Amino acid sequence: MAIPFSKETELNHQLKCILTDACQIVRADDPQCKSLPGQPRMLFGSDNIYQQLDKEFVTHDLDHLSPYLWLVATQSSSHISPLHEQVLKGRAIVITENPELHLVWTGNRIFIKPIPRYMLSHAFWTTHLKPAEASGQKNVNRPQPSQTLIKAALGFMRTYYYLIEYESDMHIAKQARLLPHDDNNDMTLEAFHQFIASFGDVQDNEVSPRYANYGTLRLSRLNLWAKVFLRRFQFYQVNRQYSEYFARFYGPILFLFGVLTVALSAMQVGLQASDDNKNTQDSHRKHHWAALTSSSLWFSVLTLLCICAIGLIMSSLLGFMLLRELAFAIKDLLVRRRGLGGSVTRC
């Protein structure tokens, strides 16, 4: 796999390659510093750097969901509106460092992961996102990037080819801190387009399944299908308060109650008319009024059962959420008491 952009078009010059037995990188601005630009916790050359990069870019859940994402979004990897159109749609840009949430929207918000500073460096791609065999450098002691990581990084960068198209998009990206801070004002729209244009040529079979056929995703649908395909209560919990969670049910429930109330009121009028005509001598008319009376009776019973079912479902849902929180707290407490370290991951 060739690096998509050239050394001449890179937008970050803080790293440089040193050619020894295998290409290594050092900080051009501070040779004593061993961390990646903008990521002081990520040390290049460390044994766990690829685990950290996996956490930054790989979307395990969405890759697992990819065969079913046609239920969630349009099947097109270019289905990504530029930033100015996101604003026109009334969506506020919210920064996320979780790759699973990149280009996921809900209501009037869309989550976008910023481009890390080191991803704009040609030296970084040469040493960390390019297999040694491809670069002609072979070193058995050097950790190798997985194809999953490389494809996820390519897919992530390709999204910015669609997000930033016009000068207005560039202004929005800088204002929202989607692009690294540019001290020298070198990151102009022209320079960025020269850098990102090559990612627009990346094909769907070169990126991870999440980015192969899909762009923006709707969180409400992800939460729905996560119950089926991920065996999880939801894909990502946006509403942290019970009141916010249950508030979304109020509108549909009130609408249902309104429809049932109108129907029951109409039947009540019909039953009153039935009482006024119960002494009629017309047997045919008596049969119709009897049918209306019977239907009204059953509809009233079904309405009561429906109200009881809604109350039971809502109560059960609240109970389930309370029990889930209690189970999480107990499990976390047991883990800490056993001295296993860390903590339980909340779904």
What's the quick description here?
The chain is α/β, with parallel strands linked by helices and 347 residues long. It has twelve helices and eight strands.
Low-confidence parts lasting 5 or more residues at pLDDT below 50?
none
Strand order of the largest sheet: 5-7-6-8
Instruction: Please tell me how large the radius of gyration is.
Output: 29 Å
> Helices and strands, in N-to-C order?
EEEEHHHEEEHHHHHHEHHH
Specify the number of helices: 12
State the end-to-end distance. 36 Å
- How many distinct beta strands? 8
- Helix % is 40-55%
User: Main beta sheet, described?
Assistant: 4 strands, mixed
Q: Which structural class is indicated by helix and strand composition?
A: alpha/beta
- Quaternary organization: single chain
- Rounded mean pLDDT is 82
Strand fraction = 5-15%
- Give the overall silhouette: elongated
